Model the fold of this input.
Amino acid sequence: MSSSAPQDSQLAGGHRLWSVDEHLADVLSAVRPLEPIELQLLDAQGCVLVEDVTVPVALPPFDNSSMDGYAVRTADVQGASEEFPAVLTVIGDVAAGSGELPTVGPGEAARIMTGAPLPPGAEAVVPVEWTDGGTGGGAAAGMTPASAAPEHAGGEVRVHRAAAAREYVRARGSDVQAGDLALAAGTVLGPPQIALLAAIGRGTVRVRPRPRVVVLSTGSELVQPGEALTAGTIYDSNSFALAAAARDAGAIAYRVGAVADDADTLRSTIEDQLIRADLLVTTGGVSVGAYDVVKEALSSVGQSDEGEDVDGSRMDFRKLAMQPGKPQGFGSIGPDHTPLLALPGNPVSSYVSFELFVRPAIRALMGLPESQVRRPSVRAVLTADKALGSPAGRRQFLRGKYDAQSGTVSPVGGSGSHLIAALAHADSLMVVPEDVTSVEPGSELEVILLG
Done:
């Protein structure tokens, strides 16, 4: 890698140039985890548990069969073979959910189904394939349904193999014991965790709710997908990308249609959305153009007509030492001090900014531990046809394709902040530090994994 001295941290006019780490720290310092609530199990999917959950009853709660077959005493099938089968009297069926159970005595067996409780007197289960199924013929392939042949719950069964004690029996408490820790506070509830909670009888659970994130894009040139383009217009992709990214981060995302370059309209739209937002994300309108209205609109959100601050709203627009994504805005607005991140409008700039700043904010709102707030990163060796250039004094984030098996990463597309197609084929971001201006093939880089 080729390095250069870092540029001065002051911009023209005396404004400070923020580092990526400073901006992220500022965002996270202002974000607090959402207050816990009690939710039904399916509503709690994707949420973070705020309490330790212990097991009230053992799982399974009783000894039960792991096979369809016959519950037997081991002494009665000792030495059994196909040539000399053990012949037992069938005393009935034991189905899953059975309450009253027959007692298996000497020379007896009970037909038993998978998951059914082991009846008194029985010591093991022999699979139906080890028997004639009560038909008097050869080895059975399965059981005849009880409704079709109720007589097979009686009569005789020939057992062709011996069974050891407890064979094919799931012991009571073999999964978890009463009093065991089922799930620890801080656990993200996915399908397996929801299953465990249901299995131990929990109908509700106390969690931090998934953050509600409202995403809106700005620009009079934006047209919704499915509508016809006219001269000078483009399709709005940012709001779709960021709403999808918010969902991927664990949030409930609401996408607002593109807002025209009008400060009053934008301000009104944002104020209307505050009622359903734990976090607001805008894209576009944060640079220095004559029609970049986000600064104009947000600078007066929460102010009276005389310009006085009436609800504590505060927005700060700054420039970061990064590429793409130099212009950024962050603050809180409205009576509840809802956090708002204003991202640049170029598609790659907005997505990279989301990954670096918005995703961690969402994860912090969820109450996740610090180790799970940011995307994981690895070190990888660059494979490329030529050296990658990077501006001095800027931390650059380039799209990459990471190969975990070889520990290498290769660039995808160029460095332009409008290259959406390249972004769609990338699975990582290659990080070039501020003091590096050229990265030669074979150099090692930090790589942020997006998948």
Q: What stands out?
A: The chain has a mean pLDDT of 89. The first strand starts at residue 2 and ends at 3.
